[in-house]
Design a protein that fits this description.
The chain has about 270 residues and is of the alpha+beta class. The chain folds into three domains: about 5-105, no CATH class; about 115-200, Arc Repressor Mutant, subunit A, CATH 1.10.10.10; about 205-270, Orthogonal Bundle (Arc Repressor Mutant, subunit A), CATH 1.10.10.10. The protein has helices at about 5-15, 25-35, 50-55, 70-85, 105-115, 120-125, 130-140, 145-150, 155-170, 190-195, 195-200, 205-220, 225-230, 235-250, and strands spanning about 40, 90-95, 100-105, 140-145, 175-180, 185-190, 220-225, 250-255, 260.
Length: about 270
């Protein structure tokens, strides 16, 4: 099924796919995250989700060039990614499916309810390398990638990268800055250090999925089969139950199996 044009127009405005709405600084990028709930960083129009890159371009047909280093739009999107990460007003790390993702503070507790790992289960569910990285950060509070490699005694850089991605996915650590000189490296800290209030909120998993599903439908206007699962990694069964709840509450209408549309007057799409 193709997305109707009026839904595309709805997304044009909300995802900043219009010239007059495109983002060009950190506050406007943060406003994008807050308005859609969560978005990606550098993906282009081939991924049907809002992203900094598409919003910087301000058009639907935003495709990354082969040489992104020389492209001004790709460069600006990269700069905004770094600046928003430093400011820490929204959550940033590699979350579902290992994609660089920004999440509004309102949704952090919902994502953590789904992907977080209790401290009591860390040794059973995390790799030995991830456990060691976590131990170092809990002692030091912040560290560069190279220092983590040394202090966690991980000789293989690939294992360190895998450990950091693992810890990002379960929302244990976040990058809070990046240095390009004298050499490229990320600086890391505990997620609970930057987002202590949000991570302390306890939400039942089904309510967390519902909250994310509601935000996602609000951001997209219409979702096709498995869109929510593909975007977040939430199981299709859980996503389906959340969407059914949205229909029961009158927030959404079910067009056909797996296809949901935001229930609102059509004039709001025009």
């Amino acid at each position: 099924m193709e997305i109707p044009e009026q839904i595309e127009q709805y997304r044009d405005r909300l995802w900043r796919r219009e010239e007059v709405l495109k983002i060009n600084d950190a506050p406007s990028a943060e406003a994008l995250v807050d308005s859609v709930g969560f978005c990606l960083a550098l993906t282009d129009a081939r991924t049907s989700l809002p992203s900094f890159y598409v919003a910087v371009c301000g058009r639907r047909d935003a495709y990354s060039p082969k040489t992104v280093q020389k492209d001004p739009e790709a460069s600006l999107a990269w700069v905004l990614k770094d600046e928003v990460m430093r400011r820490g007003k929204v959550y940033y790390s590699k979350l579902a499916k290992g994609r660089a993702t920004f999440v509004s503070r309102e949704l952090v507790s919902a994502f953590y309810s789904i992907y977080g790992i209790p401290a009591s289960e860390e040794e059973d569910r995390l790799s030995p390398e991830a456990v060691r990285v976590l131990e170092v950060l809990r002692e030091e509070w912040e560290s560069s990638t190279s220092d983590l490699k040394r202090d966690a005694e991980i000789t293989d850089r690939k294992l360190l990268t895998k450990a950091l991605e693992e810890l990002q996915k379960c929302m244990k650590v976040v990058p809070y800055d990046v240095l390009y000189q004298p050499k490229f490296t990320y600086l890391w800290t505990l997620a609970e250090e930057r987002f202590s209030r949000e991570l302390a909120v306890e939400i039942k998993k089904e309510d967390a999925v519902y909250s994310i599903a509601k935000t996602f439908l609000s951001a997209c206007g219409m979702t096709l089969r498995a869109d929510l699962s593909k975007a977040t990694g939430i199981s299709r069964k859980e996503a389906g139950l959340a969407n059914h709840r949205l229909v029961d509450e009158g927030f959404a209408e079910r067009i056909e199996p797996g296809v949901y549309r935001l229930r609102m007057p059509l004039r709001e799409f025009n």
